Amino acid sequence: MKIQLRKNALTLAIAASIGMSGMAVAADTSSSIKGQIVGPQGNPAADTKIIIVHEPTGTRRVVTTNDTGTYNASGLRVGGPYSITIDSKKFRDAELRNVYLSLGEAQKIDQQLTELQMESIVVTGSPVLFNSSANDTYYGAETIKNTPSINRDIKDVVRNNPLVVIQPGNDSAMSIAGSNPRTNSITVDGIPLNDDFGLNSGGYPTQRNPFPLDALDQVTVQVAPTNAKSSGFTGGNVDAVFKSGTNEITGSVFYEKMTDSWAGTPKNEGDEVPLEFEEENYGFSLGAPIIENKLFFFGAYEKYESPQSIEWGPAGSGIGANETNITQNDLAEVRKIASEVYGVDNIGNADTQPQLEDEKYIIKLDWNINDYHRANFVYMFNEGNRTNNMTQRASELRLSTHWYNKSEKLNNFSSTLYSDWTDDFSTQISITSKSVETGQVSLNSGLGLGDINISNIDVDGDGTKGDISFGSDESRHSNSLENDLTTFKFDGTYLLDEHTLEFGIKYDILDVENLYLDGSKGVIEFDSLADFAARQVKDYSYSNGVGNDPSKVAAAFKRKDLAIYVNDRWDFSDELAFSFGLRYERLGSDDEPAFNEELFESTGYDNTYNLDGADIWLPRAGFTYYMNEDVTIRGSVGRYAGGNPNVWISNSYSNDGISRQDFGKGDFVAPNNILNNILPEAVEGINQASNGSVSNFIDPNFDIPSQWTYMLNADVTLDIPYIGDGFAWTTTAIFTDKENTAEWVNARLLNGANRLDKAVNSTIDGELPFYDTSELDIMLTNADKNGRSIILSTGLSKNWDNGFKFDMSYTHQDITEGNPGGSSTARSNYRYGHFLNHQETQIGTSTYETEHRFVLNLGYSTEFIENYKTNFNLFFERRSGSPYSHTTRWTSLVEGVRYFNEDLIQPTGYGAARGGNYLAYVPTANDPNVLRYEGVTEAEVLAHYEELGLSGYAGGFVDRSAGSAPWTTSMDLYISQELPGFTKDHKGEVYFVVNNLLNLIDSSAGKVYVQDYGTNRVIEMDIDQATGKYIIGETSFDKSKFEAEDSTYRIKIGVRYNF
């Protein structure tokens, strides 16, 4: 007879077959098994051997239970199958077969042994393919392979998690639990794949997924893990591990293609938008033994090639999915003037199609040193590019000379030694090194063009005005970056009775070399096409390092950050387990920005603070309560910090207010060579300048931003009559309270703790203060107010024996924030927050909130051809649109006077030259706060706000994030069919991925619109300085951007050969 396992513990059979696991241990590269062995009467079975064998490689691990019958085996390879033998001197042995382990999970396996005369216990498990709850999700190799991924991106896998939202667009920004995409963490085989510097909104240090997707073995997603070993994020952690070689030679070769011939033609407001693209992806993987049972190899390679699509073009040109206000006649006239007046024949084109390339590979070696020690080595390479700064709004056409090629080269390696020193004590020692070289080079940079903008162009006289920009984008004039991250880690695990004690130390060395100098080729603004023809410059600016040397502005600094932690996982009883942890992090750096004496004398702030010595304590606590074999309750509370981009620190070195000098001039007739030559007086001005420039610095009292996260989760196995048994229902509630969030203020406007002391006046309603200064020195500090988040998620899933499976979830988010911190520069973070007063934090709905999200995954696996699988996998998502704010288009409506002048400004940037984001004012009828309407009637303005649904704000300002983009619905399908190979053990495979299946079914469905920058400019305004009253101009509306590629179906066809 076979003996039943104890019902009051998580058994191997349950863990392996339905994916319920023990308490998550942390972001890791391995798995572990722990549990308690007892005898027939329930007494601890001390001195019992647990023999664990990884069948594919013969890796063997032996541990012995302690006096309480408890054992722990850590540092195990993920996956399986494993065979486990429980070898007792007093009782009948037990054998566990086909055991599979999940990444970063402490699999809890308890066993009650029987008397010698009873039959042996044999339990057989199966691979865990998929297991999901909002705060802890696992994906196996088969799930990864069968995911409908159009871009071969790990994000397409983890979007199945209820809390993971992937935004449309080329960057595919990933928000976890409503967080800023930059605050997440991604690690693979111990290698951190975060954008450490913080320039990429997609979160990777590269342009695309940085590793071959076929190399992945397992992926986990965690939000608010209780183990103090985890850190470096406030959103969520995506942890993965690469496959390893085994004693068998295995591998695959694949080829994929996607072309516009296999795609629909999207329609934007009834107009067809033809797509032209052809993407190819190909690669291979290979795993093999070098020395059987001892040394193993695995490698994978992938290459991607594609032309890059164009989203915007001149009206009537048929270029791009969206039309700008600029027409073909407007563009032709600009070309003519540039050639005839300035002698520049090449200003760029609107239809240039850039090329995308991406190449990546990984190599992994695994070495079984002996039964007690093993090691691995991983090397990863990726090099890719993308063209950025293309046209993004109807109001401005950017020509190809204004675009730039952003490239990254990534070199990584990681090595880990896993050691078992005794039955109770084991360690992991690792070193990782990551190097990223980033290039940002303007297309046609050899032309030497500065940054040229021509405003208010309307050749056709239809009243629709627009801008044209060409020449090297000012932020690319002098721009290069290299950062190297080296990490040393020591992690120890010690079993003490029912306590599993974990402790460790982590030391990061980040070396940054960054040159960022905007405007070193000159920035020229013309107010009209007539001014462009007459060489009448509205505004000219030029910046350079002292002595006209850009290298003087380069930031070179090194950070040395230390973290130590201790954690206790306490199995209090068979039903209840606790986790307590404490982590300490301390930031360090010996490199300081150059001291700015004038800033210190003017503001009292020392700009040399570099966060050296800043520290934080991160306590965690959690519990897992196994109420019965069908219900598990988990809860936790913890403090989390990390994920803040280092570019915010780098700003202090690049903009110390001394090394950089600025030159500005306005309203003059320029020489005819100004488009590609610096004004001689600007060069001389920099040589003679001594007044410095705008400075960025860190508040000497700055505290590390963090958040307290409280989580409660229930996992229930239930039976639904007439439908089936064994449904997994999970419900999660998360509350997050943010602390010390980052904020940017103009230090010139501060006076002690009162940030309004230097305000000399305000608008008539008291909402917008006036400041008597044009100086701008931006300080990174902590906000006076902090946001919070409330998240509720529930999901249901089940796998049937007939091959059918499903997983569905609903998530609601209610998230508030202050400054979203969406930019890499201090100036932009200061100017472009959606506020009334940029000197004060205003809490509102978060830019990253997804209020409602429904997700459905359907899968079916069968054999239409005997012994050859057919797989169907469908991903469906419907979610509410991203929030945006209704803002004002500040303009000069007072003849000869501009509200943003050098004597009386709102704190936005460079006086008259720049505006910023301010929430829109909604007038009432006969509003006493409004002086007059300019170029528009009161009735038209009121009707405009009524149409926008904003009349309820009459007499005041629109709330932050009062609008939202349209809902998004997506449906993707993956179909694969195995075919006979050249030999018995080989198989071929053909597969199809249909992106936006909904649009294939209904051409009017599946459209995607986004609101760039999280703003919608709805009104022109100015302010009369004498009375403080508003002057209201023309109404406007920034249309949501139509994402053409995401708004139509696309079919990818692939073939694969597995051996």
UniProtKB/TrEMBL annotation:
One of its GO terms (cellular component) is cell outer membrane. The lineage of its organism: Bacteria, Pseudomonadati, Pseudomonadota, Gammaproteobacteria, Alteromonadales. One of its GO terms (biological process) is siderophore transmembrane transport. InterPro entries: Beta-barrel_TonB_sf, CarboxyPept-like_regulatory, Oar-like_b-barrel, Plug_dom, Plug_dom_sf, TonB-dep_rcpt-like. Residues 241-308, 349-868 form the TonB-dependent transporter Oar-like beta-barrel domain. Coiled coil: none annotated. This is TonB-dependent receptor. The keyword Cell inner membrane does not apply. It is a multi-pass membrane protein. Keywords: Cell outer membrane, Membrane, Signal, Transmembrane, Transmembrane beta strand, Transport. It is found in: Cell outer membrane. Residues 135-231 form the TonB-dependent receptor plug domain.
